[in-house]
């Protein structure tokens, strides 16, 4: 379990009032809010990319500050909206990099769940945005972290691909017990697929159910 205690995020000042929150395992959390409210700053604080502005983040009762960056990367992995495409790199090379110790059965499960077997011999440069996003999600799963953070993973996708990504994320939470925290502006998809919404509004961070979420 990830626990936020008297927590706030920020760079030069706090972006929202301190809050206590529990982020439960096996659930899909959506971070929502207007531009400039601190969604990315919140996510990057949880990823240990930038320091926590105030309070603490605890994982299994231990402060985020007690983990090295390498140790934290084994707890929480990240998927961003795009990566630089390298024409000479095969998808399969990106997918398995750093996953040598992962059980072959789990590798096969991930490949099958994301439906990417046919992509593994292809160069990244010829993949569609939807195919690339599925590959990046699979790459994160190969790290086998308990928590996956995503910064607008559907930003470059068409409508049907956006639905597909959210359905995949929901299945990952249910079938593999992963906690997924995703920044998204897809209000209709958040309300349909998220278990909880972390809304930043009026300098407050609230945890809402999808039925309570109005934006």
Describe this structure in words.
32% of the residues lie in helices and 24% in strands. It contains seven helices and ten strands. The strands form two sheets. A six-stranded mixed beta sheet has the order 6-7-8-3-9-10, sandwiched between helices. Strands 2-1-4-5 form a four-stranded antiparallel beta sheet, with no helix packed on it. Helix 4 runs antiparallel to helix 5. It is globular.
**If helices are DSSP runs of H or I spanning 4 or more residues, what is the number of helices?**
7
Helix proportion: 25-40%
- Rg, please? 17 Å
Q: What string gives the helices and strands in order?
A: EEEHEEHEHHHEHEHEE
Low-confidence stretches: none
Strand segment tally:
10
Q: Provide the structure class.
A: alpha/beta
Largest β sheet strand count, sense and barrel closure = 6 strands, mixed
- Amino-to-carboxy terminus distance: 28 Å
Strand content: 15-25%
Q: Could you report the average pLDDT, rounded to the nearest whole number?
A: 89
Side-by-side strand order of the widest sheet: 6-7-8-3-9-10
- Shape by Cα distribution: globular
């Amino acid at each position: 379990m990830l626990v936020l205690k008297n927590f706030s995020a920020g760079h030069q000042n706090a972006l929202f009032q301190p809050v206590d929150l529990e982020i439960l395992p096996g659930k899909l959390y959506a971070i929502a809010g207007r531009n400039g409210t601190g969604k990315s700053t919140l996510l990057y604080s949880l990823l240990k990319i930038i320091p926590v502005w105030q309070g603490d983040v605890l994982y299994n009762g231990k402060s985020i500050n007690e983990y090295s960056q390498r140790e934290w990367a084994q707890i929480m992995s990240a998927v961003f909206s795009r990566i630089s495409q390298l024409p000479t790199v095969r998808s399969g090379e990106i997918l398995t990099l750093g996953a040598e110790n992962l059980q072959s059965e789990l590798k096969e499960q991930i490949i099958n769940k994301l439906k990417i077997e046919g992509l593994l011999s292809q160069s990244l440069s010829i993949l569609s945005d939807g195919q690339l996003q599925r590959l990046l999600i699979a790459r994160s799963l190969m790290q086998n972290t308990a928590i996956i953070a995503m910064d607008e993973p559907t930003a470059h996708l068409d409508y049907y691909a956006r639905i597909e990504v959210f359905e995949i994320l929901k299945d990952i939470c249910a079938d593999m017990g992963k906690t997924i925290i995703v920044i998204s502006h897809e209000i209709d998809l958040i309300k349909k697929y998220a278990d909880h919404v972390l809304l930043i509004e009026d300098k407050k961070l609230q945890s809402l159910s999808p039925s309570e979420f109005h934006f």
